[in-house]
Amino acid sequence: MKALILAAGVGSRLRPFTELRPKCLVDVHDQPILGHQLDALEGVGIDDITIVTGYRAGMIEDYVGGRDTGRYTLLHNPDYAQTGSMHTMMLARDAMAGNPFVLLNADLVFCAKMLGHLTNAAPATAALIDDRLPLYDGEMNVVIEEGRITRFSKAVPAAEAHAQSLQLMKFGAEDSALLFERAAVLAATKDLQMFPAHAYATIIERSAIYPVQAGDGFWHEVDTPEDLGSCARSYVERLEQAA
């Protein structure tokens, strides 16, 4: 299985921490967010990893090059300031379409155990979700009916949602082809700020996306300075509990 990390964004909501570095290189406790992600991916046996860069791409290249250049492929979105994450994803179409892969954004801190809930799940195409989290309008909410996800969008009102997506996705080979086929159509429109989730409806209609409930393990999204502080505190607490 492959992995695709979308790391092109400016991370303006995380300023001042992103004034001089991309969001994925902001430190959480002992290493950058990206380092935690690479450790988790490799911890579940995924070492074919593509990272799409944009803002301050050279810093990401330097960081990855210091780990093991044979494990990673770096692509670049030169239009990162004008385009959203779906356009960033499309740059990896040749490498990912028709192959099973895990998709994630570069602002998530998670451990291998948490990722393993998704990668070890039986369905080829699935989304890691958590039905224990409070639901809010404007988050990536999901509706689940008869064991399948039927709606997956930030436009899903909290009152209608059953769980929140943790933004870790797994696509089987056939569904990854469907994903990029639909994303290519959407990318040709004038709306440049779409998310990959805008293309999920095609898989929902023609195939299936199954929910995988998050179990034990660490997961935290880092969008703002407040998120960063909360993530760091939670991470330290986890280490103390494990000691």
What's the short version?
The protein is of the alpha/beta class and 243 residues long. The protein has helices at 33-43, 57-65, 85-90, 93-96, 112-119, 173-187, 200-206, 225-242; strands spanning 2-7, 27-28, 31-32, 48-53, 72-76, 101-105, 108-110, 126-130, 141-145, 148-153, 163-171, 210-213, 219-221.
Describe the structure.
The structure is a single chain. Strand 4, helix 2 and strand 5 form a beta-alpha-beta unit. This protein is of the alpha/beta class and 243 residues long. It is 32% helix and 25% strand. It is globular. Strands 1, 4, 5, 6, 8, 9, 10, 11 and 12 form a 9-stranded mixed sheet that branches. The chain has a two-stranded antiparallel sheet with strand order 2-3. Strands 7-13 form a two-stranded antiparallel sheet. The model has no long low-confidence stretch (mean pLDDT 93).
Q: What's the helix and strand layout?
A:
Layout: E1 2-7, E2 27-28, E3 31-32, H1 33-43, E4 48-53, H2 57-65, E5 72-76, H3 85-90, H4 93-96, E6 101-105, E7 108-110, H5 112-119, E8 126-130, E9 141-145, E10 148-153, E11 163-171, H6 173-187, H7 200-206, E12 210-213, E13 219-221, H8 225-242
Parallel strand pairs: 1-4, 1-6, 4-5, 8-12
Antiparallel strand pairs: 2-3, 6-11, 7-13, 8-11, 9-10, 9-11
